[in-house]
Amino acid sequence: MENVQERIQELTKILEEANYNYYVLDNPTITDQEFDKYLRELEVLEEKYPEYASLNSPTKRVGGQVIDKFVKLRHQIPMLSLPDVFNEDEIRAFDERIRKSGFEPQYVCELKIDGLSVSLHYDDGVFVTGATRGDGVVGEDITHNVRTIKTVPMRLRKPVSIEVRGEIYMGRETLAKLNYEREQLHLPKLQNCRNAAAGSIRQLDSKVAAQRNLDTWIYHLPNPLDYGIKTHFEALEYMKKLGFKVNPANRLVKNIDEILAFIHEYHEKRATLSYDIDGVVIKVNDLQMQQALGYTSKYPRWAIAYKFPAEEVLTKLTDIIFTVGRTGRITPNAVLEPVIVMGSTVKRATLHNEDYIVEKGLKIGDIVSIRKAGDVIPEVVEAKTERRTGSEKDFVMITKCPICGSPLQKKPNQVDHYCMNEECPARHIEGLIHFVSRHAMNIDGLGERIMEDFFNLGFIKSIPDIYHLESHREDLIELEGYGNKSVDNLLDAIENSKRNSLERLLFALGIGGIGDKTALLLARTFKNLDNLASKTKEELQQIKDIGPILAQNIASYFADEKNQDLIHQLKDLGLNMSYLGEEIKESDLISGKRFVVTGTISFMGRDEIESILSNYGGHPSSSVSSKTDVVIVGEKAGSKETKARELGIEIWDEEKLYSVFKDLGEV
Ligand code: IVH
Predict the structure, then answer these.
(1) Domain limits of the chain?
(2) CA of residue 81 to ligand 1 center, whole Å
(3) Could you give the 3-state DSSP secondary structure of residue 128?
């Protein structure tokens, strides 16, 4: 028996080493036949002695583990993103700012990989978890899929406990192959390497992820001091020694000229790389310097991301179509011959209003140039008039609403045209906007403009459509402004809203006279929707605060077959129909409000404060805007406090917070 265990360990070692040599070092040491022979031997042993089969075994690289949902994981150190810069001046300003702080910096230039960031944890050299960045504070556990990425070591070359971060990406050739296979199967093609990688890593079944042949570049060590490391470049070397795939392009440079040379070199080489990059990351090398420079709430002050210039491409403007907003506002949209810009297909671009089109002198049939930077909305730059053939058609503004046909009006001194018909079906969207709004189902990311867009595009025509938005995933990613990350966030927010307590759904349904307070009263009293729906007008009137009109409204609402059908559909979609009040605590001072905590509060850490606020239905966020309700101000609060005061936002000092929390029994 002991021999079996030893043999399993031995085979694991041979196979992991072979993987490392093949995938990380690109230097095969054994033949494919030998590899297969060892792998089969290991498979047989693991099958016979499952008690010795590790989840990290080389046999698991092909996947097999299936999870039923993604578990959230909190990052001990937040996963920050980087501030973008777009030109040489901004790079010089970054360097000057650092020099002004009294430093003589050296930098490390790295390629900015177009994938998604990942955090990997190891205990005593053994892989334990992999997580996505998520919102930077809480990510998702993708361990089962990370195990299938061949360049992620399952055992490090030293038995250290460590977290490293880097990028998961899909190589260009892999994407091309995958799209070829998808085409054969009549499946829609994946737009670009980043979307493909993100989609692959979010698979519940790790077999699917395994087939996607994902790869990694590791570029960040969050706790370098724990390993006696003094510079970022050393950290990169150290991670390489541990067995991670570290990009050979990384370069230590001494000055701006060398940074610019690096950028120039890789701008040229970009097309020849086997993976997508969208810029160059510039990091201060010295870790003490990094520490002294510190962080803003979103970014490190010691690194920037230079983004390659937006790509401009030519395509044909095949038509201009019009959409109607909730207020009746008409927006012209360019219909374009599909064209790939910055890795994603562009088919539409907003043309804002009539004047915009007239100023640009666009004609239907024109060859136009389109510009798009990263996830930013694509825009029509100009018409290539020299390419005109004479067959182009002049643009004529419509005079009637494309939805209801009523005449359009333009208010004096305004650029927009409006449909004035209050009954125009385009306005049905009002109820849908209410459904997702903050006090109703509170679906973050479905603001008014987006709902208008989705309505006009036919994605959301009714409430259940909101919960079918997933089926338009690919379309959403292609759409202007909806990047992969925002689509993921949006779909998550929609999914999460299914777990709302009953009062939110009751309010969201828009039953005449049911405001959020009444909704809460009804939810508390009747506990679930079926119970409420079964009550007669008379029974409802028994409740204090429910008068005859409201009782009639409620009874009629639930008697209507259309509404019964809607509720039936929502139930099938998995929406919670019960009151969950016991779980969400109550406080009028907190519930539904947006909070920003800034500065140091002496009696409690920020995380804990935010989590208590959330428990009472508050929404903590990191930046102050006009939407913020309360700013909690601790010691050394700084610019957020100033901004809050400028905007006239309610401010709680430490004393006030303490008294609110004390009343709630939280301190
Ligand atoms: S460093 C605190 N290095 O770009 C350090 N990021 O815009 C944070 N990225 O979220 C990241 N290549 O997903 C770093 N060589 C590189 C990178 C890189 C790609 C991504 C990463 C990050 C985003 C920031």
Answers:
(1) 2-60, 75-306, 312-419, 502-572, 594-663
(2) 6
(3) strand
pLDDT at 480: 52
> Ligand 1 in contact with 220 (CB < 6 A)?
yes
112 ligand 1 Cβ < 6 A: yes
- In CATH, the number for domain 75-306 is 3.30.470.30
| Residue 112 annotated in active site | yes
3 state DSSP class of 208: helix
Residues listed for the chain: 667
Which DSSP state fits 529?
H
> What pLDDT sits at residue 343?
67
Q: How high is the pLDDT of residue 481?
A: 59
The per-residue pLDDT for 479 is 67
Span from the CA of 219 to the centroid of ligand 1 (angstroms) = 8
User: Residues 580-638: pLDDT tens digits?
Assistant: 875 456 788 898 789 999 998 888 888 788 878 877 878 888 889 998 999 999 988 88
Tokens 């004479």 sit on residue? 390
* pLDDT tens by residue, 342-362: 667 788 898 989 999 999 999
Choices 3.20.20.450, 2.115.10.20, 2.40.50.140, 1.20.58.100: CATH for 312-419: 2.40.50.140
The pLDDT value given to residue 538:
93
Question: With a cut of 50, which residues of the chain have pLDDT below it?
Answer: 375, 583
Report which ligand 1 atom has the smallest distance to the Cα of 300.
2
pLDDT at 320: 96
> What's the CA-to-centroid distance between 112 and ligand 1, angstroms?
6
Strand-pair category, 215-220 with 162-169: antiparallel
DSSP secondary structure letters along 555-614: HHHHH-HHHHHHHHHHHHTT---B--TTTS---TTTTT-EEEEESB-TTS-HHHHHHHHH
- Identify the residue whose C-alpha is closest to ligand 1 atom 22: 81
Residue 569, token pair as written in the block: 């559909």
Q: What is the DSSP string of 138-205?
A: EEEB-HHHHTT-TTS-SB-SS---EEEEEEEE--HHHHHHHHHHHHHTTPPPP--HHHHHHHHHT-SB
Of the candidates 526, 467, 471, 537, the one whose C-alpha atom is nearest the C-alpha of residue 502 is 526
Residue nearest to atom 16 of ligand 1 (CA): 112
Report residue 101 as tokens. Answer: 């702080």
Q: Which fold has domain 2-60?
A: Helix Hairpins (1.10.287)
State the distance from the centre of ligand 1 to the C-alpha of 218, rounded, in angstroms: 10
Token duo for residue 643: 């901004």
236 ligand 1 Cβ < 6 A: no
Does the beta carbon of 660 lie inside 6 Å of ligand 1?
no
The pair of structure tokens assigned to 223 is: 């706790």
Tokens read off for 154: 């399952």
Residues 502-572, CATH architecture: Orthogonal Bundle (1.10)
The response to whether residue 215 sits with its C-beta less than 6 Å from ligand 1 reads: no
Whole-number pLDDT of residue 364: 97
Which CATH topology does 594-663 take?
Answer: Rossmann fold (3.40.50)
CB-based contact 619:541 (threshold 8 Å): no
Rounded to whole angstroms, the Cα distance separating 229 from 62 reads: 35
CB 142 within 8 A of CB 131: yes
Provide the pLDDT for residue 1.
54
Cβ of residue 251 lying under 6 Å from some atom of ligand 1: no
Identify the pLDDT of residue 665.
81
Mutate to test the pocket of ligand 1, among 219, 221, 236, 266 (most ligand atoms within 8 A of CB): 219
Q: 284: Cβ below 6 Å to ligand 1?
A: no
- pTM beyond 0.70: no
Of 112, 283, 363, 593, the catalytic one is 112
